[in-house]
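Milestone 3.1: sequence recovery, worked example.
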């Protein structure tokens, strides 16, 4: 008989990074996984995010800015980070009540990066709606993990 163990937290997290909803499938939450995949596709298509990614990676940042529907793309960071947190949280049954903190700060900083993605320039070049939000994730996670550690230390 097969051993149906719960996946490890990082395994579910990595599958959720691949596509929101995959981590939920791995955890056995099929309905929730379908909802996340549907929402990801909806926001992706309506924001034209794949075209923005294509233009950004080919160096056509202004085309990426022009094609992007920012009102829809603003939903993407929170949807993506929430799906990752949910998959991580439900993976092995052990719940840390403060595990959401790095994910929240990550989503917040990505959203701020998205807001300023058309106006911030580095070396005179606009970063655009793909690269600045990705770069903004790093300080968001860093601050989130620091706050998480401080909360855990002072809670004890």
């Amino acid at each position: 008989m097969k051993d149906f163990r719960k996946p490890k937290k990082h395994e579910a997290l990595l599958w959720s990074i691949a596509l929101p909803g995959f981590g939920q499938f791995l955890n056995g939450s099929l309905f929730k996984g379908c909802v996340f995949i549907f929402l990801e596709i909806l926001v992706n298509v309506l924001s034209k995010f794949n075209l923005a990614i294509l233009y950004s990676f080919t160096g056509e940042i202004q085309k990426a800015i022009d094609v992007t529907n920012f009102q829809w793309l603003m939903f993407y960071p929170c949807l993506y980070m929430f799906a990752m947190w949910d998959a991580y949280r439900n993976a092995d049954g052990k719940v840390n009540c403060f595990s959401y903190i790095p994910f929240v700060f990550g989503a917040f900083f990505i959203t701020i990066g998205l807001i300023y993605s058309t106006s911030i320039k580095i070396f005179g070049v606009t970063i655009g709606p793909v690269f600045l939000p990705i770069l903004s994730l790093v300080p968001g996670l860093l601050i989130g993990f620091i706050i998480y550690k401080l909360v855990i230390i002072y809670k004890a």
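The chain has one domain: 9-155. Residues 9-155 form one domain.
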